[in-house]
């Protein structure tokens, strides 16, 4: 996992539909920084929920993830995908661009 691959010719950066990406983070979380970098390389600015000292946000995250406490916790169109490792694995498998190119659900 030495570099963060980017595929600018694919995914949301190409101007097509874009998924809603949400991410629970903490200020001093290296994996959170890496996840944001990978998403930004894809042209995606995630909605970020910083849980530092925010017990309500932490409870919300744990409710959405079935009790997971590790950070980051990433959601694409409401679907929990896990953390940075899972995000990276989706990218390496060539599946992340497809997920990011899906239309966000209407709210």
Quick overview:
Helix content is 35%, strand content 16%. The chain is of the alpha+beta class.
Descriptive report:
The protein is an alpha+beta fold. It has a domain at about 45-80. It has helices spanning about 30-40, 55-65, 85-90, 95-100, and strands at about 20-25, 45-50, 75, 80. The protein has a four-stranded mixed sheet, sandwiched between helices. It is globular, with a radius of gyration of 13 Å. It starts with 20 loop residues before the first strand and ends in a 7-residue tail after the last helix. About 30% of the residues are buried. Mean pLDDT is about 90; it is low at about 5-10.
Strand content: 15-25%
Total strand count, please?
Answer: 4
Widest β-sheet, arrangement of strands: 2-1-3-4
The largest β sheet comes out as: 4 strands, mixed
Rg from Cα: 13 Å
Individual helix count: 4
Q: How do the SSEs run, as a string of H and E?
A: EHEHEEHH
Based on helices, strands and strand pairing, what is the structural class?
alpha+beta
Average pLDDT for all residues: 88
Shape: globular
> Helix content range of the residues, please?
25-40%
> Which stretches are poorly predicted, pLDDT < 50 over at least 5 residues?
4-12
The end-to-end span amounts to 35 Å
